[in-house]
Amino acid sequence: MKAIQDLVATVERWWSGSPPSINPKTNPLTGQSWAGKPVPGLKPLSSSSIGPSSTGLPGAGAEMSPRKADDTGMAAAPVAPASRPATCRPTKRRRGVRHPRLALTVTILGLTAVLGQRFYNQPSLQVGSVAPETVVAPADARVEDRETTEERRRDARTGALRVLRIDDATNEAVLRSLGNLTGQVGDVLRQAGQVPFVSTAHLSTQVQYYLRQSDDASWLKLRSLVAPAADVDAGPRSAVELETLIRGQTLTPDQEKALQELWSYNQRASTQAFAELLDRVEQSRQSYQQAMANLTLLASQVDGLTASPQLFEVSTQEWANTQSGLRRAAERMLAQGIAPGLPADVLTEATEAQLRGSVPRSMEGVSKPLLLSVIEPNLVEDSDRTRIQADMAAEAVRPVYVEVQQGELIVAAGDTISHSDFVLLDSFNLSQRRFNYWGLAMFGGLVGVGVGVFLLIEQWVPQRLRQQDYVLITAMVVSAGVMKMVSVVAYGLPAIGLLAGSFYGPVLGGTVVVLLAVLLPVGATVSGIPFAAGAAGALVCSILAGRMRSREELALLGGGVGLTQGVVYVLLTLVVSPVSLLSAWATILTGAALQGVYGVLSSILALGISPYLEHLFDLVTPIRLAELSNPNRPMLKRLASEAPGTFQHTLFVASLAEAAARALGCNVELVRAGTLYHDIGKMHDPQGFIENQMGGPNKHDELNDPWVSAAIIKKHVTEGLVMARKCRLPKALRAFIPEHQGTMLISYFHHQAEEIAKDDPGLAVEESDFRYDGPIPQSPETGIVMLADSCEAALRSLTNATPDEALAMVNRIMRARWKDNQLVDSGLTREHMAVIADIFVHVWQQYNHKRIAYPKAALTPRIRA
User: Fold this and answer.
1) Measured between alpha carbons, how far is 436 from 421 in angstroms, rounded to an integer?
2) Are 588 and 573 in contact (CB under 8 A)?
3) What is the pLDDT of residue 420?
């Protein structure tokens, strides 16, 4: 049980964003150690003063007794050990009072009756059961097996082939890419130039090809041999001189042929013409080398394309024919359609077949990689025609009928009942449908276990549930059963999760959703995948709704829930029908989109009814508290205008109380809202309170009657309750109005009355006339506000005091409240008091920070000439 307590408490604090339990050795605001900073007026606790652990849990510690005081004057309340500091939690009522047996019994019976719908008309002879006796057909019958028919139609719909269409955008992109690629190849060919680049009368075509593509070493060797022939001053050379130059040289046949033709041209032409010929060869070589480099770069980008010298031997006409042939082949392939996932070898064979006869034979090897590099699948699914095809396939499935003749055997005794047997038995009313008492009773036991689990978990969360809270939670569960009757339970679960999580936090809200997700499929027939998707969305809602602080955030949460439902629907559908993924993709996405829409609509429904439920069941949610704390609320605007001093007092008290509540892990939103409204009753007579007199005459000095003055002061509580009811504040906020004063003594006027009674012995001073009517604080939140309200005026009056002096004063005030037994029911311990005192001083320091004193000259306005 201790482990369950720790786990649930940790989860609740983590999801609600509350801080962990207080470490009494650490300042929760600054993170600095308390050690070495003694609390003036209080002695350290001895081991003898430590009693059972006061954790705020039922039965976890001894009751705080106001009549037992230590030598400091403060009640010796139980204090948690230092290793396990107490959290700020209210004391719970006993289970017997909260959960009477009659109410539990009625709740379990009612939930069993609503959720156990399958047991009302349940057949005794079901599919898979053993027939107790032989059953023959009492008459001829031809009965449609609707379940089998629907299953076959569903399979036909999901198994229908996809209808594909050609994507024009893909075609345009492919042809554009092909044109760009062939254009780049054409640019490379034009850069290389054509052969012959000089007249064939000077050099043969074969020699020109050789000279253009020969390597630099070969060309330099030939150039060195023929260089003397290009010397103008040396004059023409004879054949004998040529033989002398090449004697001893090792030349290839191509080099010898090129050398002979060059020398021969030298014999026929002038030295100047021969030099120009060599320059033409040099220029052609440079263009060729640059073109070859560009072709190599292009080949690295196109898979299968090689930088082959044979490509530069293509004539201009041949390349033009190749370009047009490539485009025709691409257009034919795209017109026939290329499906996604087509094997590479099939696409290669199709490309070769299309190029054969379309481009010059010598260019087929170059054209194939060019076409393969740009061709892409251009067939996409036509979702509309695919859906029509699937619907037609489903409609084509004929209904499945089960036929039997009169007197024919349906099932023999001891045989297992098949689905077709059950269809016939049910059609003849022989399936023995009846009220399943035992099944409903067992389901009632399961419901009782679920209720017990909820109550067990509810014991270990900080929130105290009231009777109306149990009524509301029961109504949510009953509404789920009602929605099952009209077949919309899968779509309404997120609304229940959002409401339960928003009203009662992630632990209780998630528990309700999980129990519903377990009980509903057991007690009634639900559609599996949609129900699971709705349950997943409801669980997300219940976990996150309590963290939302505005209606806008809740609306955004509805979008997240819709997305969750859609994703879960897709995943579960793929798990159930993985084979039909491709053919049923449109159907699956449509179903997922509908689930998303249902999730959003469910959250909209919850947002619409949540304000009414909050008012009807007097709930205080974080969102409602945030709305009530808006300074533009009519009551707060009245307070600011009619009692401005009280309003400023309220703001400072709120700062003190919020900081303490945050450090102790209390409900900060509740403390903020409760503090803002705790003194609204002072508007009945603002001048009766000194903070609103603004230095004017004191009304009580004029009255000079302490009994009347005390009545005016006390009346701000009763009038505040009247105002709170008129503006429909929830009870949790109305509790701050009387409890922040408790039954404290109005000491100033009580002392004044005693002074008057000294002069008039016949005048009796009743202490009850000068005490508030109470009750004393019943929760940590109202206790914190009482302390903050008591310390506010004293802290404001301090100007040049040190933090230690301020702390001593705060502790004196707190000790007075403790000795007056004002905090015995609040759940606050002495450990908490020390933390609260230090936090109050820390907040006071923030408000009382020093400012720079400006010189008078800096504040005097300068007059420009």
Assistant:
1) 21
2) yes
3) 81
Pairing of strands 135-136, 141-144: unpaired
Lowest mean per-residue pLDDT among 342-351, 426-435, 541-550? 426-435
Q: Tell me how many helices (H) and strands (E) the chain has.
A: 34, 8
The answer to whether the bond into 369 is cis (omega within 30° of 0) is no
The alpha carbon of residue 817 and the mean position of all alpha carbons in its chain are separated, in whole angstroms, by 46
CB 385 within 8 A of CB 163: yes
Q: Check: CB of residue 599 under 8 Å from CB of residue 558.
A: yes
Decide: 355 and 368 in contact? Cβ < 8 Å: yes
- Whole-angstrom distance, CA of residue 599 vs CA of residue 560: 9
Three-state SS sequence of 207-220: HHHHHHHCCHHHHH
- Return d(Cα 14, Cα 20) in angstroms, integer: 8
Q: How many CA atoms lie within 13 A of 682 on its CB side?
A: 26
Beta partners for residue 416, in sequence order: 130
Q: Which of 323, 367, 402 is nearest to 149 (CA)?
A: 402
Residues 6+ apart with CB under 8 A from 709: 688, 700, 703, 749, 752
C-alpha closest to that of 538 among 569, 508, 498, 595: 498
**Are the beta carbons of 325 and 358 closer than 8 angstroms?**
yes
Per residue in 778-790, pLDDT tens? 999 999 999 999 8
Task: List Cα–Cα distances, 277 to 202, 229, 230, 263, in angstroms.
Answer: 9, 12, 10, 12
**What's the farthest any 2 CA atoms get from each other in the chain?**
163
Distance of CA 300 to the CA centre of its chain: 46
Q: Of 18, 135, 11, 63, which is closest to residue 622 (Cα–Cα)?
A: 18
Bridge partners of 411, per DSSP, are 135
Distance CA 490, CA 598 (A): 9
The whole-angstrom separation of Cα 319 and Cα 359 is 9
Contact 614/624 with Cβ under 8 angstroms? yes
Q: Sign of dihedral through CA atoms 112, 116, 122, 124?
A: negative
Whether 736 and 677 have beta carbons less than 8 Å apart is answered as yes
CA distance linking residue 666 with residue 18, whole number of Å? 8
Condensed to tens digits (0 to 9), the pLDDT of residues 804-862 reads: 888 999 999 999 999 989 889 888 988 899 999 999 999 988 887 665 655 656 555 55
Task: For residue 376, give both structure tokens.
Answer: 């892409």
Residue with tokens 């705790």: 678
Beta-sheet strands, E only, within 33-140: 122-123, 135-136
Is the CB of residue 822 less than 8 Å from the CB of residue 776? yes
Instruction: Quickly list H helices, 643-767.
Output: 644-664, 668-677, 699-703, 706-726, 731-734, 736-739, 747-759
CB 326 within 8 A of CB 360: no
What's the rounded mean pLDDT across residues 189-202? 86
Residue 562, both tokens: 């819709």
Tell the residue number behind the tokens 């045989």, with chain if given.
415
Q: Return the CA Rg of the chain.
A: 48
**Residue 359, SS3?**
strand
Please, what is the Cα angle at 85 between 80 and 89, to 5 degrees?
Answer: 85
Q: 404: part of which helix (H) or strand (E)? A: strand 401-404
Stated length of the chain: 865
By CB atoms closer than 10 A (0-12, 13-18, 19+), residue 54 is: buried
> Is the peptide bond between 775 and the residue preceding it cis, with omega within 30 degrees of 0?
yes
DSSP secondary-structure letter at 69?
Answer: B
CB 584 within 8 A of CB 157: yes
Query: What are the Cα distances from residue 552, in Å, to 285, 305, 493, 555, 556?
Result: 75, 60, 21, 5, 6
Question: What's the rounded Cα separation, in Å, for the pair 516 and 510?
Answer: 10
Sorted by sequence, the CB contacts under 8 Å of residue 221 that are 6+ apart come out as 255
pLDDT at 45: 30
